[in-house]
Amino acid sequence: MPTMPTLVLVGHGMVGQRFLEALAERGLTDTHRVVVLCEEPRPAYDRVRLTSYFSGRTPDELSLTDAEFIARHGIELHLGDPAEHVDRATRTVTARSGLQVTYDALVLATGSYPFVPPVPGKDATGCFVYRTIEDLLAIEEYAKEHATTGAVVGGGLLGLEAAGALRGLGLDTHVVEFAPRLMPVQVDEGGGAALLRTITGLGLSVHTGVGTQEIVADGEGGAVRAMKLSDGSELATDLVVFSAGVRPRDQLARDMGLAVGERGGIAVDERCRTSDPAVYAIGECAQAVDGRVYGLVAPGYEMAQTVAAALASEDGEFTGADLSTKLKLLGVDVASFGDAHGAADGCLDVVYSDSRSGTYKKLVVGPEGELLGGILVGDADAYATLRALTGSVPPLAPEQLVLPAGAGAPVALGPEALPGDAVICSCHNVTKEVIQTQATLPEVKKCTKAGTGCGSCVKLIGRLLPQSGDKGLCGCFPHTRAELYEIVRVKRIASYADLLDAHGRDGARGGEGCEVCKPAVGSIIASLAPTIGAEGHVLDGEQAALQDTNDHFLANLQKNGSYSVVPRIPGGEVTPEKLIVIGEVARDFGLYTKITGGQRIDLFGARVEQLPLIWARLVDAGFESGHAYGKALRTVKSCVGQTWCRYGVQDSVRMAIGLELRYRGLRAPHKLKSAVSGCGRECAEAQSKDFGVIATANGWNLYVGGNGGATPRHADLLAQDLSDAELVRLIDRFLMFYIRTADRLERTASWLERIEGGLGHVRDVVVHDSLGLCDELEALMADHVAHYRDEWADTLDDPERLERFVSFVNAPDAPDPLVRFVPERDQIKPDLPLLSIGSRPLEGSLTS
Predict the structure, then answer these.
(1) Which of 264, 579, 807, 835 is 20 to 30 Å from 685 at the Cα level?
(2) Secondary structure of the chain: what % helix, strand, coil (to 5)?
(3) Is-above-0.85 flag for pTM?
(4) Of 321 and 589, which is predicted with more confidence?
């Protein structure tokens, strides 16, 4: 067999991964050996959403790399092993490990590095940059132990992202920007003023028009204690993050003797070839033919496509790119597109500004009425549509496009106003007409990749797709989840098979159903089990086959194949005796122990055959399932309330325990979280929960529809100054109305925003009984409370259920040999084996 030509990719960031995908799409991974040299200890991840790590997203969730994709295409990925030398004469790349690879084509995707101003003290302990996941982990660890105040040098995109991260870590945060306004590249003076008002209103201190003169530290190599600014002032701080821009990482190219731009960046032609025809450069390390170094991901993706096309002998050029951008900084929408600063001759501005709401909109219009660009701060919903209209004359007058609803604006400009060649997804250069060849959003993402980049176009894509009249839950049922709930309740159907046979689509009846409707119907039947006479236990009969993976073993499956054990600790209150039992169980089974944000103790690392043994001891000690594995109530968090706290006005612990014991095991469309705060100081964070309770001098205020996570939502006040009985009655009604009408996997926050009439309608139904449903809702909850049984206690009493808790059916007592652990901080963590990818084992090491 002839030797396949070799492609070497240096760098594995977002653009590098997109290049690999473009190779695979063209079949080049089948005809070429592909070797990737990656400096970081982890594969490509979403650097655009880096700050979401501080709102709960894990590094694994940020990953853009599917190990199965790498293995399927035979790609040789070397982590933590960057290229250190290239011999162009012999076309050989040498990596840090000593690995040498001879290439036929070399692609440089080395990205950029953070610029650190040459100020005295910049290397002091407590100074960081903000670029990689490892940077974030280092900042997080240092802040926990050594900092209460943080300062960010730079008020641009990355600077405000870094400021949001420090604020999320609980630090008093300052932003120092040399320019006279924040985000000087993206917004003008008016937009900067609107952004400044909003950000300072969030509690951040902003210093514009000043530079950093010196980092003051405690002695030589000591820790940061202050910053000296160019106006003569001194800013006390324990931690400094430099985020003053980036520079192209072109040193390897310089060492190779390749041509670079005057201000940096590897010079490339329209095919992204360097001065050596066998070497290409893409992304932030490259200077395009227009003289620009693009710091956005969309141009990098376009460069990746251009090089893949060149290697496949296809047409394609990169001569420049759209610099439009939309993002949410500290909860504030900011967008700019086209000629945002009005540099074109004869252009005019149309501006709307409302300092009260922090909204600023500016459109730049050409002499003939064509839209040239714009800036949006505070309200960027129209960004995707306006950007797609750039270069054409909009169908509405510009002043109508910037006015808010209710202030003279017409109905929002719809997608029908866009021409077919309008680019909807700038990250992947996908037009309206291409998107409309698909039927659903998943198909659009899979076939065109539109919507998989920054995500700003997803809402517009949804409006472009055909709006089918079929609102069925899935291909098996023509009914929505809410309609199926009513069918099950009214007709007392206690079996999924019976429901499918009686009410499924013609082609689905008599079948096995699908992974969408089975767990959804299983949840409905579990919610209504006492009322319809169904088997209430999730592992009983047919119910067991309907459950998601976690419910099959009444435990959360972890990344290495082990499971977590989460006993219920109502209200966070636990006796010393029970704490001792948890400690003994964790010690005897070698489990990793973690106190969670929901005031529970999680035990990680249990093998499947150990689960019954562990739970037997916990149940004997009085614990029951915490339902961490189910779409059910998780916890009701509480502060210590008036019993201990001098500010408390009600007994929040008593109320939290009562609510958690009342609603434990309640199956719902999605997980439920709750909290009770004993006063208005809100220490239990009740307003970020599905239902939250805050004490008043006259009783309790009830909040609903809150949500944390990646898309937080503040809960809405449903009713106030309630007695204990009134509070419980309204929560009963609210939860059962939500379970009755919500869609599959819809949290209360999304449900409240989607349901027609929103909070007002829910208040009318739940508080004022406008639909006459309240007696029925209360009866359904009473049935649940009366028939509740602990799932783990019942499982331990049933030999048939216990038979499922084995790793191997033919060897019930044998543990899974792939479930392994290594020590970390006097406990354990999963020992994940290094993957063998392509024709070589994975080289380098993954650091924790």
Answers:
(1) 579
(2) 35, 20, 45
(3) no
(4) 589
